Backbone:
């Protein structure tokens, strides 16, 4: 085994995962390190000091093995390494690296466990550790679940610190000067005389040195990058039109393609007539792909135009054909047989509601299917030549893409080379690899030429794996001006079941996402129950920014708001009174202070609503202010407070929170995917708008850093946005809207 | 043969006149800073300047461009020498995924050429056709104001 492999075992393995006794997995399997994925490709003169630090004659490249979809993963991961390795910011180069089990995500599996983030008991802690071990054994290299920062925080800093120590050791061997007298500065080891030796000149020697058993990490007080405003590594490229995305790939001899498959997802293609398309300018061939056909042409537009001229005979949808039938199926899902979980069952809800008699409040809420619709339509480029497959695409699941490619081509994994690309947004869409499989299928008939396959927006929106629709049934009671009982039942198809099925990754046990953002809220309501029902699968669904909490935030918090109103209590004060988690109280108090909260009514046709959701371990509270104008409702201002333990990249943090709020508000205002004849009725941004600039409120963000655990912020600002807006609309109009999008009931300016 | 200029360079093409300018820029001229997002003028990712006016290149057929002057994001500046609007975008770190930002910058540049010191309402009017799925809108507004300042500084 190489030296670099050892460091993975010694330094990284348990960096983020507490060792807990009694875990049932074999010790050896968990201990056994993954190979350093950088080793096989090294040229003479290059050194991979560990899976994250690659040094060649030009300097240091930091491997940032989480996909950058705009959330700034590359910059923040690079900063963690650079902080400890002592690099100059302007010298930093990053690379996604090859797909590798060594790049497993220890946090993503832990997220799928039924322990609330505020639960720090023995069982919860052990289960989280177990989740991380599972991820390691499976080699789950996944970007998602707001885990990039928490998963990378220790591991990436240790990678930098260990590499630095090896470079100092190499300098000692070269100069004879004791390590104790050597220091580092901006990519150099510096001797007491002030001589600076570039890391590049020490790398080959350093790779021969045994990795340290232990490394000391800098105190946060000594940080020069982390916690300070940093310039994103990609900001200049993204401001000058020079950032390359997957859709921009250009290769010698490349052909262009597009694909059309059955818009009834999972339905077959009974046949098609491509005779007209085949005769159109620039068209080389029309070939079958799974579920449809692809057009290969000499330009993207010629391929897209020709594809519209193919007439298809599509098979039926393997799910209810229209949205009304889907709602009916969900409403019929509140049965004992379909009960999936009851992680919260405090007090005796049935007795409390019976005692309340006629005073029980009841309501049904619902949220629609939603598309991811990142602005860059799905695309992938593939070339199969001389027994080697190259893929250029942006994916959050590189290991699964390799598995898909081996299945399609029969090649071995080592003959498949995935070049992960910057993504023009994702929001969870690239946790699926359907579009990459299509490009591979086209490459398999392209006789060695690279094929760039680009979907039309219409193909993208009609072939998403959407956020599933959900229905809630809520009952509750109040007593003495307080919320006394809350019984929430949630029915939705399981994302884990749908997505896991496609990934060939069984997900046994309850699906926590069905109740995420609802069962785990830090409220001490005396009689409090949350039950999840797993509806029968309908359209194939997937993870959408903030996943289960994306809808449950609305379903939970709006009914809580109804109960508080019925109790005659103040929406903020009653949430605070009920809240039994100090960190969560902190964010509620913060938005109260930021917004100058004095009750929902602000006078002059203005009003505000507050909402709270704890998701991904992050308590998030938001206050939305609205006003009634002649043109409709206007969202004037939003205040957000979130608790993340520690902010590593303040600028990007602010951007992620504001983006999350706008994502949550925009979809709540006007977005839904509806189905007719098995197909989405929305095909483009004319009927799926989201928020536009003129509707964007001013947003004030406050980060609290009181928690001991560092958290990711890509998702948690989303769930409370919709309920805060709906609660504000109630305060402004008296209208309690119990479904999304809200523009079914009110118009927005 | 259809003739027009892109960023000052003469372009001659015998492609079908109904070919959208967007795809000539991207696939033929390899000017990939201009993006495809919707193909129906709803997202603004393909915004370019036609004789100085911000236009959606996905809806511009090259047959209508004879003699026209087209400018793309690449004409606004380079990574080494970014233009004032680009400098403002860098300073405010507007981009998240960045995919819409070429179009946002082109829309902003066209606005600033006409209205040197726009207020928020004018910015909203000019840029609301440019969709940003990441939600960078608050920073876009701030960056347009900053670009206006930088352009004034540049001309002083």
Residues:
């Amino acid at each position: 085994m190489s030296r670099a492999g050892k460091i993975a075992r010694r330094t990284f393995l348990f960096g983020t995962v507490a060792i807990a006794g009694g875990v049932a997995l074999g010790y050896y399997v968990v201990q056994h390190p993954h190979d350093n994925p950088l080793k096989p490709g090294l040229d003479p003169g290059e050194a991979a000091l560990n899976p994250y630090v690659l040094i060649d004659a030009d300097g240091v490249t930091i491997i940032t093995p989480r996909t950058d979809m705009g959330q700034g993963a590359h910059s923040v991961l690079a900063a963690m390494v650079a902080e400890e390795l002592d690099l100059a910011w302007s010298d930093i180069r990053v690379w996604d690296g090859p797909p590798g089990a060594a790049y497993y995500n220890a946090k993503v599996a832990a997220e799928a466990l039924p322990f609330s983030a505020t639960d720090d008991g023995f069982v919860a802690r052990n289960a989280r550790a177990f989740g991380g071990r599972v991820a390691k054994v499976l080699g789950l290299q996944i970007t998602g679940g707001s885990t990039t920062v928490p998963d990378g925080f220790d591991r990436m800093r240790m990678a930098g610190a260990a590499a630095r120590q090896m470079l100092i050791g190499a300098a000692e061997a070269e100069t004879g000067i004791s390590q104790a007298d050597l220091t580092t500065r901006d990519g150099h080891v510096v001797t007491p005389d002030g001589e600076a030796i570039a890391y590049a000149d020490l790398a080959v020697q350093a790779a021969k040195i045994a990795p340290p058993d232990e490394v000391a990490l800098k105190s946060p007080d000594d940080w020069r990058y982390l916690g300070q405003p940093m310039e994103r590594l990609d900001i200049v490229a993204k401001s000058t039109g020079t950032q390359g995305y997957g859709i921009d790939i250009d290769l010698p001899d490349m052909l262009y393609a597009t694909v059309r498959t059955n818009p009834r997802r999972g339905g077959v293609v009974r046949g098609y007539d491509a005779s007209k398309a085949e005769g159109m300018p620039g068209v080389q061939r029309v070939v079958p792909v799974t579920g449809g056909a692809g057009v290969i042409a000499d330009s993207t537009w010629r391929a897209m135009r020709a594809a519209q001229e193919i007439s298809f005979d599509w098979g039926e949808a393997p799910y209810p054909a229209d949205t009304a039938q889907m709602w009916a199926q969900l409403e019929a899902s509140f049965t004992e047989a379909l009960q999936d979980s009851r992680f919260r069952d405090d007090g005796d809800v049935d007795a409390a509601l019976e005692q309340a008699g006629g005073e029980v409040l009841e309501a049904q809420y619902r949220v629609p299917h939603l598309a991811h619709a990142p602005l860059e339509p799905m695309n992938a480029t593939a070339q199969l030549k001389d027994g080697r497959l190259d893929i250029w695409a942006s994916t959050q699941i590189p290991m699964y893409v390799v598995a898909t490619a081996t299945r399609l081509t029969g090649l071995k994994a080592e003959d498949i080379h995935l070049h992960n690309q910057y993504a023009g947004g994702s929001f969870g869409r690239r946790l699926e690899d359907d579009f990459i499989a299509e490009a591979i299928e086209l490459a398999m008939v392209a006789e060695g030429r690279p094929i760039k396959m680009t979907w039309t927006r219409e193909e993208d929106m009609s072939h998403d794996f959407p956020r599933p629709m959900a229905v809630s049934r809520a009952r509750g009671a109040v007593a003495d001006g307080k919320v006394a009982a809350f019984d929430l039942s949630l029915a939705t198809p399981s994302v884990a079941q749908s997505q896991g099925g496609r990934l060939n990754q069984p997900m046994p046990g309850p699906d926590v996402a069905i109740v995420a953002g609802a069962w785990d809220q830090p409220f001490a309501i005396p009689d409090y129950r949350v039950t999840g029902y797993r509806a029968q699968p309908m359209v194939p669904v997937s993870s959408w920014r903030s996943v289960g909490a994306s809808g449950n935030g609305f379903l939970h918090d709006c009914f809580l708001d109804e109960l508080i109103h019925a109790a005659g209590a103040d929406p903020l004060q009653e949430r605070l009174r009920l809240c039994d988690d100090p960190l969560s109280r902190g964010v509620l108090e913060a938005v109260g202070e930021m917004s100058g909260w004095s009750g929902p009514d602000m006078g002059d046709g203005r009003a505000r609503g507050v909402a709270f959701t704890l998701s991904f371990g992050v308590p998030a509270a938001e206050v939305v202010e609205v006003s009634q104008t002649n043109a409709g409702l206007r969202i004037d201002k939003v205040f957000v407070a979130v608790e993340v333990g520690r902010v590593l990249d303040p600028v990007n943090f602010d951007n992620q929170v504001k983006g999350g709020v706008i994502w949550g508000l925009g979809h709540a205002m006007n977005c839904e995917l509806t189905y007719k004849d098995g197909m989405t009725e929305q095909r483009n941004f004319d009927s799926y708008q989201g928020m536009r600039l003129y509707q964007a409120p001013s947003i004030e963000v406050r980060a609290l850093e009181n928690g001991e655990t560092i958290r990711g912020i890509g998702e948690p600002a989303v769930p409370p946005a919709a309920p805060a807006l709906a609660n504000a609309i109630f305060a402004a109009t008296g209208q309690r809207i119990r479904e999304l999008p809200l523009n079914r009931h009110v118009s927005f300016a | 043969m259809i003739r027009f200029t892109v960023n000052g360079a003469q372009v001659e093409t015998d492609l079908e006149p109904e070919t959208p300018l967007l795809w000539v820029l991207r696939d033929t001229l390899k000017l990939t800073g201009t993006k495809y997002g919707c193909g129906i003028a709803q997202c603004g990712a393909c915004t370019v300047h036609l004789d100085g006016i911000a236009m959606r290149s996905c809806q511009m057929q090259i047959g209508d461009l004879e003699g026209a002057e087209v400018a793309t994001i690449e004409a606004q500046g380079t990574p080494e020498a970014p233009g004032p609007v680009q400098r403002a975008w860098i300073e405010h770190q507007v981009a998240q995924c960045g995919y819409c930002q070429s179009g946002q910058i082109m829309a902003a540049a066209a606005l600033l050429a006409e209205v040197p010191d726009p207020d928020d309402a004018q910015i909203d009017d000019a840029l609301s056709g440019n969709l940003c799925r990441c939600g960078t809108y608050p920073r876009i507004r701030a960056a347009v104001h900053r670009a206006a300042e930088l352009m004034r500084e540049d001309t002083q």
